[in-house]
Amino acid sequence: MDSIISVRDLAKVYDNGFAALSGARLEIEEGEILALLGPNGAGKTTLISIICGLVTPTDGQVTVGGHDVVQDWRRARSLIGLVPQEVALEPFEKVINTVRFSRGLFGRPADPARIEQVLRQLSLWEKRNEKIMSLSGGMKRRVLIAKALAHDPQILFLDEPTAGVDVELRKEMWEVVRGLQDAGVTILLTTHYIEEAEAMADRVAVINGGRILLVEEKAALMRRMGKRQMRIELGTPVDRLPESLAAYGLERADDGAALVYTYDTAADRTGITRLLNDIQAAGLVLHDVQTRQSSLEEIFVDLVKEAS
């Protein structure tokens, strides 16, 4: 795929000397969903603000659709729709007027058919004549997305799109975002819900301390850095591990009623067969065995710890 956004050696130092970004490099491919993950203060907001033309970089270059965000900011910005985390909408305005106004801000001609299409796509058409103040939190977030899409951008930035939204509405929003990707929109997602990135993203970028630590295809990242845990439930709890099992690094769980073994999925040998044989030889009775794959959240936490 071709890059629709290119970030090269980007730096931002504020007047107080704080370096929010340092040497950031990132290529966002056309049509993908990229999840940008990082702790508070990592530089996510600064990076997005520079790409969207809201903040001027100290050094480096960003292009959007081939347009420099500083030298050719108007054309670059026209390709982007931004959905902020904060729900800032005029409460007494109708839904349809709010979306029409956003299209006009970008100098786009009136197009009732396009506005209707956007509202229907986001299940807002039946609410078009209702005032913003009458909508639920989930519907207000849909209006924010409709506003961002009104001028037909090629790229959509979603900053914490499901913050404060319940689990059911969150999953509905995921379906909306997938539908936008199917329609050809490139999406950059920032979220504190790591399961959201795990469910939606094609690739993951991790930023910390103003530096981008990695950018990798999600499934490949989880294969490369993920570990599996095997939980071995015992017929009879043990007060301590037999000496013959010490080399496996087992953890006692549930007051000795279970043992937990962590192993590397990429290793040539996992040691599972030998472990199970040694458990039996030690006189322990197996009741059940379960395995689980480490989540993206666990991988993210480990990455941030290593970089700190």
Q: Strand portion, in percent?
A: 25-35%
Q: What summary fits the major beta sheet?
A: 6 strands, mixed
Class per helix and strand makeup? alpha/beta
CATH level-1 class of the largest domain: Alpha Beta
In DSSP terms (H or I, runs of 4 or more residues), the helix count works out at 10
CATH architecture of the largest domain: 3-Layer(aba) Sandwich
According to CATH, what is the topology of the largest domain? Rossmann fold
Indicate the mean pLDDT: 86
| Helical fraction | 25-40%
Describe this structure in words.
By secondary structure, the protein is an alpha/beta fold. It folds into 2 domains: 3-223, 3-Layer(aba) Sandwich (Rossmann fold), CATH 3.40.50; 227-293, 2-Layer Sandwich (Alpha-Beta Plaits). The chain is 33% helix and 29% strand. It has helices at 44-51, 73-78, 95-105, 112-121, 137-149, 167-182, 194-200, 218-225, 272-281, 296-307; strands at 3-13, 19-29, 33-37, 59-64, 67-68, 80-83, 155-159, 186-190, 203-208, 211-217, 227-234, 251-253, 258-264, 286-293. The strands form 3 sheets. Strands 6-7-8-3-9-10 form a 6-stranded mixed β-sheet, with helices on both faces. The protein has a 4-stranded antiparallel β-sheet with strand order 2-1-4-5. The protein has a 4-stranded antiparallel β-sheet with strand order 12-13-11-14. Helix 3 packs parallel to helix 5 (137-149). It is elongated, with a radius of gyration of 24 Å. The model has no long low-confidence stretch (mean pLDDT 86).
